[in-house]
Each structure stands twice: as structure tokens, then as C-alpha cells.
Fold:
Amino acid sequence: MPYQKLDRGLLALKKLSERKNKVDIERDQIPVTQKPAHFSSSGQLIISKTIERIRLARKKQKPVILAFGAHTIKNGMAPSLIALMEEGWLTHLATNGAGIIHDWEFAFQGKSSENVRENVEHGEFGLWEETGFNINLAIIVGAYEGLGYGEAVGKMISREGLQIPDTKVLYDVATTTMRSDPELSAAAVDLAGVINRFGLPHGFMVIKHPFKKYSVQARAYELGIPFTGHPMIGHDIIYDHPANLGAAIGRTALNDFLAFAKSVLNLEYGVYMSIGSAVMSPMIFEKAFAMAQNIKIQENSHIDNHYMLIADIAKSDWDWQKNGEPPMDNPSYYLRYCKTFSRMGGEMHYLTADNRDFLLALYQGLTEK
Structure:
């Protein structure tokens, strides 16, 4: 007998405009000209090495992939990320579900980051109508359009709205593609169901994003650069909303994982940077890298000359490149992300740094004459 499930229709949702926010993007965004904190001599050497490898990768037309946790967005680093894309230094960006949400909320209302402790106490944490409805709807529409998770949200922000199909068209697509393309057929039925449930008229649904110039995923969409979202079911506030649909999450997130793996496939002489992501980045990278290596071996090739820079605020004096994996009685052994990346071959360095300081130093170093 199936487990009993919570009915999300029982939830009392509030308007996003009623929420107190800790971050105002216009006030708290960090310009690319801001000077980073001083790095130690060893830290500066790692940054210089990373800059050198990025320049080499782009000269060879190889990928430079940046994976990051949500704090990179929440800390106001959109100007640096956008500049790195616009100037050709980054070829792929990847984040978790929270990174997608903070970026969208900044674009939509210019503010993000609620008081979790206070709002849980009042039964309000994450229960915001616009965030849950708009992001979920973008993902459901994106699943029908064959898009990725981050791509779907970036498209909505960039276009300031969503194209809602006529349900008659969707039912026709579902019927005619049931055998030839069952994924499309199912996605069409899912979208039709959401349209009916929420009484959405067909046509272009305008969703204004007055602060979209701060949206990294929207700018990536406009530039044709992959911005992939890698969520985990139940980790993000959009799962609280009745519009949330697991099938659409799965379809778009899988599209993004495969797009991420495609970038990793070409990583020979490329660069992978992981900033403030203890779980998402190492976990998706090791699976994507294993698949990439599998294909390369079948082609009588191998990925050996990739460069990995891992940055986080946790301190570690262990030299992962020189000394390999530390023994189990050393605290550095339990820096899971370092341990994972150290097993991925190539050249790997760990940098203890705030994501703001690292990205500022990286951008300013890359653009020095």
C-alpha cells in the first residue's frame, strides 16, 4: 500500500513581496573593480597558475567550466560571473537548485535570502507564491520544450515570460508522439495538466523581471553558454509549491546533467573550477568524468591533462597535488570534495578562499594587460 503523502494544497502561501530579505542585489552586488582580500604567497601562486591554465585552455578552444554553490550568487557575484562569460573566459556554468532560485529572485524582485530560523518558526519558510509558481512553471514548460533546468529558467528571465501552449495542441502532441517519442508525449500531458489545474490561458504569459541584468542564467541563455542546474529532490523551496512536478524536474535536470557531461567530455587541456560546493560539484563531476573517460578510451584516447581548482573557505594545509590523498587520521581526509577531485587524475589544487575574493582576483588577473 502506498505511503500517505502531504497534500501541498493545504499550504497557505504568501506573496513574495511580504517577505523580509537579507540581500538587496542593487545594494549588495560586488563590482568587478573591487579589490579582493590579500592572498598568501602560496594562494597567489595557485591563482596565477589557474589564470595561466585558463588562458591556455581558451587558446586551445578547450572548455573552462565553473561549478559553484548558491552563496556565489547570494554574495552578489553576478557582475563577475557575467563579465567572465561575456569576455569569453567561461564556457559552462553549473550550480545547485538554490543557486537557480537566488538568481531568479534577484531578477524578479531585486532581493533574496530570507531569515530561515524566523520563518520556520512562523511556518513561512519557502512558502512564497511567486518563487514556487514561476520557477516550477518555467521548468514544466522547459521540459516540454526539451530544455535543461537552468536553461528553462534563464529563458523565462531573458524573455520576461513563458509561452503557454493551447491544451488542444498538447493533447494532439501527446497522442501522435506516444510511440515515437514517449518523453515528449508525457511532458505534453504534464504541461496540459498544470495549465488546466491553474486555469492558465494559452499565449505568452508576461512575467516581468525588472532586475534581469543581474541574472547570470539569463545572460548565459542569451550568450548560448550552458548554465546547468543540478538539484536534489526536496532540497529547495520550490518543492513546497503545489505546481511542483517531479517528472519535469527530472527531465530538465537530466538534460542539464548530460549537457554538463558533454562539456566534461572535451576537458583534455581544459579547466574545471569548483567554488563552495561540497556535494553537488564533486558528485556530478566524478560521474560525468567517468563517462567521458569511457568514451575517450573507446576512441583510443584518454583525458589526462585537465586542470582542477577547488576553492572553499575550509582550511586545509594538505598539498593534494604533491602528496595525494591524506591518511584517515588527518582532518583533511574528510574534506570530501577535495578527496573526490584528487581521484580524478589531471592536476588539482585546493585554495582556501572566500568566493568573492577568488572570483575578483581571477577576473582581474585574466584581464590584466
